[in-house]
Amino acid sequence: MQIKYLVLLLALKANPITIMLSPFGDAKTTGHIIDDAFERSLTLKFAEAVEKEIEKQNKDVQVILNRAPGETLEPMQNANFANRLDIDFYASIHFYQETEARPKVFIFNYVTDIFHTPITTKLAFVPVDEAFRINLSKSDQLAKVFESSLKQEKYKHDFDFKGFKKIPFRPLIGVKAPNLAFEASLKTSGDWKNYIPAFVEGINNIIRELKQ
Amino acid sequence: MNANIKWIVICCASLIGAFLLFAIRNDYIIFNFRSLRQSDNQILQNKKTIKLFYWNHDRWNKEDCEVIWSDNTQNDISSIIKSWLVVVEEEKLIDKKINLMSALVSANKNEVYLSFDRNPFDDDQSTIKKLMLAESLLKTLRENNIAIQKVRFLKHHQTIWDHHLDFYHAWPIEGFLEEQ
Question: How far apart (Å, rounded) are the C-alpha atoms in residues A211 and A205?
Answer without folding.
Answer: 10
